[in-house]
Amino acid sequence: MKANNHVPVYVTIFSELRDRIVNGSLGPGEMLPSENELCAKYRASRETIRKGLKQLEQAGLIYSSPRRGYFVNTPQHNKFTLSFSQDIGNGEVRFKDIRIIRPTAEIQEALNIPSNRKVIAFYRGNYKGERQIGLEIKYVPYDRGLPTIEDEINFAVFPEAADAKATSFSYYTELNIQAVTASGEILSMLDCSPEDPLLLLKRTYITQSGEHIGYSKQYLIPPYGELHGVSGYVQKNTH
Amino acid sequence: MKANNHVPVYVTIFSELRDRIVNGSLGPGEMLPSENELCAKYRASRETIRKGLKQLEQAGLIYSSPRRGYFVNTPQHNKFTLSFSQDIGNGEVRFKDIRIIRPTAEIQEALNIPSNRKVIAFYRGNYKGERQIGLEIKYVPYDRGLPTIEDEINFAVFPEAADAKATSFSYYTELNIQAVTASGEILSMLDCSPEDPLLLLKRTYITQSGEHIGYSKQYLIPPYGELHGVSGYVQKNTH
DNA sequence: AAGTGGTCTAGACCACGTT
DNA sequence: ACGTGGTCTAGACCACTTT
């Protein structure tokens, strides 16, 4: 049976079950009707029903337990999808300094390297107009022939800005968020006072083969240095 | 053609294409072979091929453009899936105080209420053993007959701890992360100094109908108050 | 005109949980 | 023994893009 306005059948199934879960008439832990029952109810083939159920599963609303049935999930509100505020993500970046240093214990651990392996440190400032809103230091192992500084910059240090075709999905990022104050050299490179609380984002760049190709510390000054996220099932308008 | 060790064909398709994308032999923006070509290559039916491609799409590696083809995505590293550290998520929570207050401008805006609408404020401490690692204040509109304080606590203030069957997916959470220092009353309820930088998590609880049912401010003390996240495509072992 | 992805069907076999 | 979800097939029609 076709739905009315060119709405695919599986979307109808998804929507109706989603509504029942969202409004509570299907509560967490409850079992959904079996695929065959839904086939009968919607007069659709099993694959079509499964398509709708798959969407619910991917939205995090249900899970399937093979040979038992589908069940409503218990909502998770301690996991968030986080994105950077526009100011940081789209703001201006200015080069500040570049150094070759001995790794601190922190950097050794983050990059998984011995103490005698030197590291290149890149200093960049985040700006919004003339106002500095952050400072980012990226550390990259200094090694393997070192093609040229330029190549290192393009492909290892700032992969997000480099030729996307070359970097691809070859790495992912681990993120750690802390609140800190700045001191010493860091403070002098930031436009703030010693008592100002800052967000510190530590990121480790890891290839799919497990190699740690970079480590960065980014200091963000309030009120620009804010992060935003959402958790749970956010209602989306049909795109 | 069946795969070797009971590995579904669509998983094989997913894995092989994923590897080609991850190792760069299929770069961002490149078009994948068409479904029909993949059908021929893997000697599988079109729906099976589509299943594998769907997985790649949901992993964020590719996207499909109807009537044109499938294309490799450009990786996004400014979106993170974030979760709380174990200490916070699994730590102990102790009740501290409960008050009925006039909403500040901040709370009015967060809860979307007028200034004459009173608010219940719940104060809770996060502990790890005897060490306090955080303070959370939840604000809930004081209204609609007020069933009993207990009900408010169970179903509006601490839904994550209440009967899951009653709360369901009826709300989602918006999160904001800042770095701050504590002062005045907040400071006195926290086990830290005025100059200690703290993480401040502001959360707004929103029902699917758009109603703002709660607002909370959680202060976290380093080094326990840390957040962790990942971005990009993280290799997972087949569970 | 040929090719593409989007939707859908009506079957099939399997492994396993429940009764 | 029966029901369940997991996998898979070989078709079909559609709307649209590309050539």
UniProtKB/TrEMBL annotation, chains A, B:
Domain HTH gntR-type as annotated: residue spans: 7-75
One Pfam family hit: UTRA
Keyword Transcription regulation attached: yes
Statement: the UniProt record of this protein carries the keyword Repressor: no
GO molecular function: DNA binding; DNA-binding transcription factor activity
Secretion signal, residue range per the UniProt entry: none
GO BP field: negative regulation of DNA-templated transcription
Residues annotated as transmembrane: none
This protein's UniProt keywords: DNA-binding, Transcription, Transcription regulation
PANTHER family named among the record's database cross-references: MANNOSYL-D-GLYCERATE TRANSPORT/METABOLISM SYSTEM REPRESSOR MNGR-RELATED, MANNOSYL-D-GLYCERATE TRANSPORT_METABOLISM SYSTEM REPRESSOR MNGR-RELATED
UniProt-recorded name of the protein: GntR family transcriptional regulator
UniProt source species: Fusibacillus kribbianus
Lineage of origin: Bacteria, Bacillati, Bacillota, Clostridia, Lachnospirales
